[in-house]
Write a structure and sequence with these properties.
- The protein has 113 residues and is of the alpha+beta class.
- The protein has one domain: 2-Layer Sandwich (HIT family, subunit A).
- The chain is built from two helices and five strands.
- A hairpin with a 3-residue loop joins strand 1 and strand 2.
- The longest helix is centred in the middle third of the chain and has 17 residues.
């Protein structure tokens, strides 16, 4: 999608601080980090959110989860990390492209809201 921020980042039209990529996934540092380590993991195909995962595209969500584990190890998050995907505006999703936030690098709050 030409108007999707994350599609444009994946295409190289907008610069990013890439930390990982493969044929399925692209991951980069969040420009407004909420933790010392805050990385966004996005599938290379456009899907609005987890609400749009189905039997035909579920492999992209699976590959994002696998990549998140690899990235967490690369980042040295041995004390723990959080993986979050917001679905829709009420959950705080601001970019309508499926993505996962890897958060870590310090003790995170016990509450999620």
């Amino acid at each position: 999608m030409s108007d999707c921020l994350f599609c444009r980042i994946i295409a190289g039209e907008i610069p990013s601080a890439k930390v990982y990529e493969d044929q399925w996934v692209y991951a980069f540092r969040d420009i407004q980090p909420q933790a010392p380590v805050h990385i966004l993991v996005v599938p290379r195909v456009h899907m609005d959110s987890l609400e749009n995962v189905d039997n035909e595209n579920a492999v992209y969500a699976e590959k994002c989860l696998q990549a998140a584990a690899v990235i967490a190890r690369q980042e040295g998050l041995s004390g723990g990390w959080r993986l979050v995907s917001n679905c829709g505006p009420d959950a705080g999703q601001t970019v309508r492209h499926l993505h996962f936030h890897i958060l870590g690098g310090r003790k995170l709050s016990d509450t999620m809201a």
